[in-house]
């Protein structure tokens, strides 16, 4: 009888731990962002990002990681006016954030139905905000750039990168 109680306790504890982990990964650390009427994009040849008008903005973000930002919005702009982003890799969003589907965005990018442009370079060190434009809609996320990849791995940063911040050990 004692063995059944112990096994039952372990099974219940394991299920609860699994449910807790799922909840914290998918729901707990995300905050919905307030509505915005503009996003920052980098025009072709410009040194810095500028504000561009948007409508129907929906966004989420988290303080737990610099790459958890996701946003969807309506925007009327010609991608040819903006700085292209060649390394774009749409990152998955939680399933409850329905407007952002990384698989669909990746397919559209690969098929040429969408264009990725620079939102803000180094929005925090080693992290770029990328915007994908498709059919009057914009989809934004943040991803690690080559400077960040090297810095976060502890390697020297490539030529042309801004100086990395001091490491806190």
From TrEMBL:
InterPro entries: DUF6446 (IPR045616). It holds the Pfam family DUF6446. This is Histidine kinase. The lineage of its organism: Bacteria, Pseudomonadati, Pseudomonadota, Alphaproteobacteria, Rhodobacterales.
